[in-house]
Write a structure and sequence with these properties.
Strand content: under 5%
Radius of gyration: 25 Å
Helix content: 40-55%
Number of helices: 7
Largest sheet: none
Mean pLDDT: 84
Low-confidence stretches: none
Number of domains: 1
Order of helices and strands: HHHHHHH
Distance between the termini: 85 Å
């Protein structure tokens, strides 16, 4: 068996350093970037978002079967503006709609709402969650 020459050792060390350097330059995992996973919808109209015209119908269609006064699942009531504002202000509304870590994804056992619908709810919250 022949011993490696100094030249071969240096070449091997150089290649190892090149590989390690190359790996360190790779970007982070694609899947940990929310804006890449859930890009804002370009054609999403958020100009006239209101509670009564936008947010309430979404909640009625997707949430009230479980989170009405009658059902009251999980102790969360989303009936009426005042109850929705409580969950908007404590961050639970957006956390659950975005399926964020640490929140119970909603609708339970259902598909995540469309990105545009989530964007509209966020627009309403950013506007101060007005009752209109």
């Amino acid at each position: 068996m022949e011993l490696p020459t100094i030249k071969n050792r240096l070449l091997a060390a150089g290649l190892a350093m090149l590989c390690l350097t190359g790996l360190s330059l790779l970007p982070g995992c694609y899947y940990d970037k929310e804006e890449l996973l859930y890009p804002p919808t370009a054609n999403c109209d958020t100009a006239n978002v209101t509670f009564s015209g936008t947010v309430q119908p979404l909640i009625q269609a997707n949430c009230l079967a479980c989170h009405s006064t009658a059902a009251g699942q999980g102790g969360i009531i989303l009936e009426g503006h005042a109850n929705v504002v409580i969950r908007a202000n404590d961050g639970k509304l957006m956390g659950t709609l975005n399926h964020a870590s640490g929140f119970s994804p909603m609708p339970k056992n259902g598909q995540k709402l469309a990105a545009c619908d989530i964007q509209r709810v966020q627009t309403w919250i950013n506007a101060g969650a007005p009752n209109n």
